[in-house]
## 1
Amino acid sequence: MNSRFLRKFRLEIIFVIVIVVFAAVFLFQNAHIQATAKPGQETWQGSDDLGSAAIESTGYHPWIAPLWTPPGNEVESLLFSIQSGLGALVIGYFFGYYRGRRECPKSP
Amino acid sequence: MHIMEGYLPPQWCVFWYLVAAPFIIYGVYVLNRRVKQNRETLSLLAVSGAFIFLLSSLKIPSPVAGSCSHPTGTGLSTVLFGPITTCILSLIVLIFQALFLAHGGITTLGANVFSMGIAGPLLGYAVYRLGRAVNLNVFVNIFLVTAVADLFTYVVTAIELAAAVPLQGGFVFSFETFFAIYAVTQIPLAILEGVLIALVFKYIIQSRSDILVKLKVLTPDQIIKIMEGFS
C-alpha cells in the first residue's frame, strides 16, 4: 500500500474503518445486553415502537388504526426489503448508466 | 422518527398538516418547474430520492441505546436540490411506508413530513451554506449536513411528541424522555450516514460533475481541484 493508494481511496478507507468500529461496538454492547437481559425480554427494539410505548404508558390510546398492517414480522421484513431493493435498483441503474456514458462519450 | 398512526391527538394532526402544507405546495411547484426546465438533472434527483428510499428502510441497531432506528437519507438531496425539493421526496417515501408498512401513518403524515422532510433538511441546508461560506472541505461539509439533517429530524420528533402527549412531569420531562428514545439512539447512525453520503458524493463528482456545475453545487475549478486530490 503506497501513499498514492491511500490518497486515492481515503474516503473508502474512512468508510470501512467507521463500519468496522460500528460493528465492533455493536458486538461488544450486544454481549453485555444479552448477558443482562431477563429471559423473554426483547432486545434491539425499534425506537419508533419504544416511542409509541412511552406514549401508551400515559394511558393514551391511539384513536385510529392503520388501514392495513403487515400480518407478522416476516411479511413486514419482506416489505422493508422490497423498499430497500427498489432504492438500490434505481441507484445502481443510474450509476451504471453514468459509467457507461463515461466509457462511450459519443452516445447521448 | 415515525409517529405511528393514531398516536397524535387529532388537533395536533391538523396543526402539523397546516405547518407542512405551504412547504409541500411550494415544493410541488418547484419540482414541476425543475422537471420542465432542467431535464438533465432529473437522473440525480432520482438517485437522491432512491437514497432516501433505501436508507429509511434500513433499521440499524444503535450501540449506544440498545435499540434499532433508521437513517433518513435526506442529506444528499438537501445538498444537491435544496430542502424544498427534499420535502417532496420525503413525502413520497412516508406515504409509501404509511400505506404498505403501517410505519408512520396518514393522520401523522403532516408531523412526520415536517420532521423528516422540512426541519431536518432546512437545518442541514443552513449548515451547508455556512460550511460553504467558511470554505470547509466539501466532503466534511456533506458529512455534517447529512448527520445534522438526520439527527435534527429525531430531535423534532421528540418535540412533536412532547408537545402533543405530555408524560407525567410536564413538557421538559417528556421532551427528555422522547429525546433519549429518539435522538440519542440516532447519534451513531447519523455519523454512519454522513460518512456514506460523503463517499457517494465522491462518485457523483467522478461521474456527473457536469450536473453538479449546473446545480451550482460546485464550480468547474473546484471540481478539477477535487479530482486532482484523488489522482
Note: Chain B has a mean pLDDT of 94.
## 2
Amino acid sequence: MAQLHLKNIKKQYDSSGPVVVKDFNLDIEEGEFIVFVGPSGCGKSTTLRMMAGLEEITDGEFYINDKKMNGIAPKNRDIAMVFQNYALYPHMTVYDNIAFGLKIKKRPKQEIKQKVEEAADILGLTEYLHRKPKALSGGQRQRVALGRAIVREADVFLMDEPLSNLDAKLRVQMRAEIMKLHQRLKTTTVYVTHDQTEALTMATRIVILNNGEIMQVGAPQEVYNTPNNLFVAQFIGSPSMNIFDGIFDGERLKIGNTNIKVAEADKHILKEHGYTDKKIKFGIRPENVQEYQQLSKPEEASLFDIKVRVNELLGSEFMIYSELEGEEIVARVDARNQNKPGDTMTFAFDMDKGHFFDFDTGERITDN
Amino acid sequence: MKTIYLFWIIGFLGLILGPMLFSLYGSFTNYNVTSTMDFVSFQNYEEMFLHDSLFWTSLYNTLYFVIFSVPLTTIAAIFISVLVNQNLPGMKFFRTVFYLPAILSGVGVYLLWMQLLDPSTGLINSFLSLFGISGPNWLFDAGWAKPSLILMKLWSAGGAMLLYLSAMQGISKTLYEAAVMEGASRVQMFFKVTLPMISPIIFFDVITSTIGSFQIFQEAYIMSSDSAGSPENSLLFFNLHMWIKAFNVFDMGYAMAMSWILFIIVLILTLINFRFAKYWVHYEDD
C-alpha cells in the first residue's frame, strides 16, 4: 500500500502546444480508491500515464510514499496497470499472461505457479488458465488483466477505463468485482473513467477534471450534493442537473415569468454575497423537481405548470422531459404516473436542495 | 454472370490445368519438340535419379541457396524493419532507401551486382582492400559464387521489410506499455511481444520466399559466366538445369519430369511448414 502525492503536475506535449494537464495537486491516502472522471480530452488518462511513467511529467513532482518518482522507470515504481483494451498477449495462455511479469523478473517457478493459481482463484479464472485470450469473453479478458496486476503485489494499481470495452451488464458486474477486489487487497488504486456512474459507485473520492484542471475532489455524496461549480453540477448525475438562468429579487427567484420562493438559508447567503437583483444560475436535480401531488405542504410551495414533451419509463420511475420558460427541464417521477406527452403537470422545486451559481464564473454560491 | 464463369473455366483449363496435365503426361514421354510424344514410362525419372549427376548437383545448389538465403533474408528483413520502426527523424528516408532495391528490376540489378562483385575492379573488393583484405573472386570462384548470390538477395530484403514494418506498426502500443510496466527490457519485448505478434507475416514470408528461392533461375542465367552454371557448376540451380535440358538439348520430357520433382519437393516442404506452424505462428483471432 502506498500514499501518493501529486504536486503542481503539468503536461505539455510540445512547448508551443496546449497544456493538457494544468497544475494538478492531489494527495492520495493509503488504500484509497480514487476515480478520475471527466469528458474526453480532460487530461485524466494523461495524468494516470504520468503516474505510471509512460508519459514524462513536464513540470511538477510525483511522489509515492515520499519518494520522488519523476524520471524513475515504470518498472521501478512498483505500479501495476490495467488497460482499457486489456493489453493481453494473444499468443500466450491465460496462465502465461498472468505470469508474464513474474517470469520477466525471473521468479522461481513454484512461486509463479502459486501466485497465478491464487489470483485465478480470486478471479474465477482457474478453469480458463490454459486458454488463449481469444477464447475468452470481454469480462474474462479484463479479469485476466486484473490477475496480472494482482500477482505483481504492487503498491499501486492504475486502471485506465478498464470497463469501457464491456457491454452495460458486464460493466456493472465487473464494477462490483473490482470493488470486491479492492476491499480484499486494499491496494491504493487510481481509476480513470468517463462514466460518472462508475465514479459515483466505486470511488472513495472522485476527482472531476475538465480541460486539464481539477474541478472538484470529494466523496461521491459530496460532489453529488454540493457541486463546486456548474461543470461538476452538470457532469455528475444522470440525467444531469436542470440549470436555469434567473434573477434573485431578494425574496424570490425569477425564472422568466415564474417566481419561486427561495429557502431562508439561501436567501441570506445570496443577499450577503450581493446577488440581490443580479442574474444567477439556479440548478436543481430531476429528483428534486416534485410533482404537486407528492408535496407535503403544497400551500407553501411555488407551483408551476409544464406540458409533458417526452415521458421515458425507466422501470421504477418516469423521466418527464419538458420546458420551463424556454429551458429544458427534467423531472423524475413515480412510475405510477399516468401522464402522456401533451398533458399538463404541476410541479414545485424542493428549494432546500437547490444550487445557486455565479452567472459569470459558474462557481457555487450557496453551501447546501 | 454465366459468361464470366465460361471465361474463368476456359482460362483455368487452358492456362493452368491443361499445361499441368500436359507436362505431367509429357514427363512420361521422350518428347523433344520435333518428335512425337512416345510414352517411355518412368525412364525420365530413372535417368534423373540414377544417371544424371548434374541433377543432384543442381538440387544440392538449390537447397544450399534456399537453406541460407531464406533464413538470412528473413532475419535481415526483420532486423531492418525493427530499425526503421523507430520514431526518429529522417526515418522515412531510410525506409525508402531500404525499400528501393525491391522495386529495381531483375537483369539491371544482376548486371549492377556483377560489377560490384568484379574481383579486380568491383567496389566490394576495392572497399575490402582499404582494410588490407584481399577479396575473393566472388562469381568466378566455385566456393564464393553461391554466397555472392545470397549476398545480393540480402541487399533486396527491403521488400519483405515493408511487410514486417506494417505488421509491427499494427501491434497495439498498449502491449508494449503493459510489458514496460511489468519490467520487460527491449530485447525481451522483441522476443516476447514483437516476434510472436508478427509470426503470421514471418510464416507467409518464409513460405513464399522458400518457393521463390527454389525457383531461382534468372540470377544464375545472367551471372554465371557461361549461362550454364559455371564456375564448376556451382551456379547450376535446379531451374537452370531444367532450362538447359528443355531449351539447349530439347529434352522436353526430361525437363517436364524435373519440373514435377521440383513441384513435389516444394509441396512437401510447404506442408511441413504448415504442419509446424501451429507451434510458432500465432493468429490474434481465428
Note: The radius of gyration of chain A is 25 Å.
